[in-house]
Predict the 3D structure of the following.
Amino acid sequence: QVQLVESGGGLVQAGASLNISCTASAGTITNYAMAWFRQAPGKEREFVAVISQNIDTTFYGDSMSGRFTISRDNAKNAVYLQMNSLKPEDTAVYYCNAKLWNGLGWSDYWGQGTQVTVSS
């Protein structure tokens, strides 16, 4: 089991870049696929990006591909989301997610979220 803590959110202008981080305050992320989701006010939680345990596979949500980059550093027990060319519609709470296949299904662990606000 892991406990996740996000950081790095804030208020930026449209077109700016921001890098947010997620670290495990307990446990290790090595065996987990790691993902980012986001949730804007009044909307459902939306998939942003995922990276495999051994860093060889990444996948992005349609509106993020080409602007966002997910990465991880297992030695630092951390996962990152580099966000470029931010738009006001990227405003949301961004959540870190750890996924582990236990043979029967996925176990999911979530952080508390970090707010990203993009002004026009």
Q: What stands out?
A: The chain is about 0% helix and 55% strand. The CA atoms of residues 17 and 96 lie 18 Å apart.
